[in-house]
Amino acid sequence: MHKLIALSFLTILYTNTSFAALPESSLRPGGIAIIPLTDQVKHVSYEDHRVLITEENNKKYAVVGIPLSTPIGTINIKVDQEIIPLDIQSYPYAEQHIKLKDQHFVEPSSDQLARYKTEAQEQNLIYTSFSQSKWKTLPQFITPTQGKFTNSFGRKRFFNNEERAPHSGLDIPAPIGQKVIVPADGTVVGIGHYFFNGNTILIDHGQGLISMFCHLSQIEVHKGQVVKQGEEIGKVGKTGRVTGPHLHWGMSLNDARVDPQLFLAPKK
Ligand SMILES: [Zn+2]
């Protein structure tokens, strides 16, 4: 009887608190590691990038982004002066072969490459930034636009049979003009009209957690604007290198592009 009471109490505790706001842990390239910390811990880093620290029910956790390029095996997280080894497992990401008619996108000209390099530097500067968070507990994210999506994150891509970087975001197919909303509070830190990504918005959620929205037909915010969860920021489009209208939603944590689905509440 006591056991039963204890169990149901735990269930209530689990569903009624904000515990679900911790992203889902998934030890794979493109995944996330959750490390419980003692109160005294001040600084966590991975490959010289400072790592996000959040509090849930008065307990501290480090939330570490694992880059898509991470080889299978052990990675080391530095927790103050201590090294925590983590075992990274393989994951069956899909393969996608795309035929592109516009050869410019397959073999960009030197001008286009120079443009892309400048744009990539601009985005990397944002990904490697680390701002103070306004939250103590990492907020729960919501989907930025409506639409049925499959597991497109991490897909190995071949354009006209040439292997390219794996897909670093989640594609949500949606009609041009459908509204895109803010998945969690933050500050607009970047607006771009990029060669590959098209019209793009980058939002800083604090502590190196950055979200990215690409291929937009319209941008309705400006750099420096503070945005709230649920607020409209733009419209779905097909700008940049795309085969059809959709929203590309990227999430970056300690400069690692991670699976955005890990930030969403588990499906019931
Ligand atoms: Zn995409």
Automatic annotation (TrEMBL):
It comes from the Bacteria. Keywords: Signal. Residues 29-82 form the Peptidase family M23 N-terminal domain. InterPro entries: Cell_wall_metabolism_enzyme, Dup_hybrid_motif, M23ase_b-sheet_dom, Peptidase_M23_N. Gene3D superfamilies: Glucose Permease (Domain IIA), Peptidoglycan hydrolase domains. Residues 166-260 form the M23ase beta-sheet core domain. Pfam families: Peptidase_M23 (PF01551), Peptidase_M23_N (PF18421). The keyword Protease does not apply. This is Peptidoglycan DD-metalloendopeptidase family protein.
